[in-house]
Amino acid sequence: MDIEVIGRIRPSARGEGHHSLNISGNHRITSSDGQSYSFQPLFRQDATNYDVYAKVLEPLLDLFLAGFNVSLLLFGETESGKSYTMAGDSLNKAGIVPLAIDGCFNKLLDLQDKPREEGGLRDAHRRGKDDLELKMSMYEIYNEIIKDLLTENQQRGSLPIKETAQLGPHLPGLNQIQVFNAAEATNYFRQGWGRRTDVVTDFGPALGYSAAVFQLELSMVTGGSPLPNRSILQVVRLPGAEKLAEDPTKLRMREGPSLNKSLTAFGQLVTELANTRHADRVINYTDSKLTHLMMDALGTNAKTRVLCHLPPHCDQYRLSVMLRSCAQLSQVKNFPILNDHLAQGLVCQFRARILSLQEQLGYEEGHGRALQLHEMRDELKKLTTDNLQLRDKNERLYQKVEQLQSKLNQMAGSRTDLSSKLIFSEEEKLQVSKALVDLQIENNRIQEDYEAANFELKNKVLTLENELMEVTLQKDKLSRDLRSTHDRLRTSEKDHKELADEYIILKTNYLALTKEHDREKARNEELGIELLNLVNATSHGRPVQGELTAEINRLRHVVSRLSTHKPQDIYLGAEEDRQQMEKNLFGERERMEEDRRRMKAQYEEDQDKLEGNLKKLRRELQEAQAQAREAQRKAGETAAKLIMAEGKQRQLEIEHSKAQQQFKDMNSEYRTRLIRYVQDIGEYIDTSAGTAPPNQRQLKDMRRYIDAMIADTKQAYKAREEQLSQAAKTYKKQAKQMANKHEQLLIAYSQLREQVLAGGRSLDIDLGLADVDLQLSDGERELHAAQTVELNRLRRALQDARAEAERAAARPKNVTIQEPPRKGPTDWSSVRKQLREFALNTQQELETDNARMKTKVSVLESQLSEAQDYIDKHLVRYKQEIVRLRKLLGQEPGTRQGSAGPYLDSEPEFYPRRRGHNRANTSS
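RESULT FIELD:
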């Protein structure tokens, strides 16, 4: 059963902001170098301790009560929230350990209330509390010193570790307290948590280097078993994992051999367990006290979960190491079993057998008698002292070799410095490009603002022009109305004058008629007087009455005709003339009004058409301006995007160069470590040859392991060689492409220049430099040397062909020669182009093959010379050192023990070759 790895992101402190981790949809966290791991599940920053307890630790409590060993490891950097997860900070925010204590007692109470037939502890004939015993212990490991946290006044010194058949690795002096309720156990836990080592050293707080272990041991009778099951619950707060990202050797030299021993041994143990998943593996757990006491939690009899704590803002290299460690932890395979009395007996038997075999290792097979235990210990101490002395000498030799290697690395690091300077300059260039992009964006914004303001001003100008045009049109309209009004006024005045003349004439006629009427009236009065006289005379002459009556009637008739008919006829005639004149005048006026209305309607129609055309033109102008602004905006956006894309491309190129440099450094370090491992193994075999002969299985495993490391070293060299070869090919390809493009541009330039010169016109323009002045320099001409030779050969062949054609044309006429069709300038230019393309392609292939062969030959020559130099200089000294070390071990020169002689004799020849090859590759 593999170890389950769960992730938790620490909530951000005040001022930290949101986390900067790269999290994908399936809870996968990825670092900047590509290392990733998918946590199942991943607790975000809003998750509480109870959420973690409910999903992580509470399922383990059920297995713990059922009789299985369970463990929870709190893994992460310093100040990543491990202590908060384990203990909390107050009663309201309790950690997972107080919650686990409370949950464990609640589950035990539920089991005591159930009958045994249902899986509980209650029996009808005896009490359930006699079948149950729960003990609690708590200790701390700091600087390889074990401290009991449940003892108030503990003496100075570390608790010893003892391994027995019944209990395995345990602490015999550890205080184990039997607890009966959750409050009591929580109180003990709080007291122990407060007794941890909380001091500040030269290397930081001691809490970052210490490991705290909380343990519950349960003995409980379940089911029909006569003996109790024994299970253990462990919650381990590991030291800060940021030290895994550093070199263990440098860390040991800087901070001492035991301060980080627990963490480094834990990392090595996880790596070994992840690489060997089969059940017959043999793992050493005694490198540190922490790994020795965690034997059941890692790789053996326990159900284990790891809670990885991640800070919201983490260094990318540390994050990569953390994710790699989580991936290795997830590959560790445990074998948890039910710890009933049968399994406990079987495990005890195996432990007793192992302890017996360990004690029998002190017996010597050759002499046939057993040494005493104290004699074996003295011999072991003596061998240990000798081994330490040899290791000290070996370390001094290693220091000398490291000094030489450091000098070599400094020589090779100059290129790295140049690369870093180049990267720095590229970064500065990228910053300048970014600033240029910002300025371009600001310029585009200012230009857009200017265009908008210009557009508004143009709109205002167009509005004012429109208003001016409308006022002008209205003025013209009013002027036309005024002119028409003046015309009508003049016409009216003329008509008024004519009417006045007519009136005067009519008035004159009327006065004449009135005078005539007065005359006739006076005459009539005279006739009346005369008639009265006649009437008076009638009374005197009756006889003449009839005649007078007739005369009177005749006079009356004449008077009435003169006084009545004649003025009436004149008046009627004048009235008819007046009416006819008025009719003529009003008809002319109506006709003029009708013309005026028609002209006004025509004018208004023309005015409406003009306004419609103006509106249409204004709308089209606005649309055209909007389209122009949109096109300009899109052009600005496209330019900004192009600049940003170029900046991103440069940034990607810089990141690619950084990644290649980092890959080169890691590959070099990996090769150096592999060679160092092979040397350490060889020296270990040399030093251990005199103590005990190795068996065939160990030799085979060692040979297979060394062959695998040699293959990895070869693969690393091959990868580096392929990387350099690929970079050289890429550079050559780019140089060839640039040279080809330059040649094509030069050809096009010469053709255009010839066309301009062949035009025969005197142009007042500068044609620029000639194509001869634009040729490549001497350093750039090496790539096209063979190509130029080939082109010259083809040109000479072309000249020879032309001379042959001229000689053939000069022969006698009786000799008939079929001449080929003449080619014009276009055909000759096409022929030149084809010849140039053929020569260019041929030259590219030849130069590619030549560059590849030269690269391989130079690399092989440098490797061969350096390897030969190293062999000549250092082989003799290396063999003398091996002979001296063998003499110190009590062996004769040239002799071996056991069956490993041929294999070990071949080692001195192997190391110098690999070292020389490493130097050759480093120099290349």
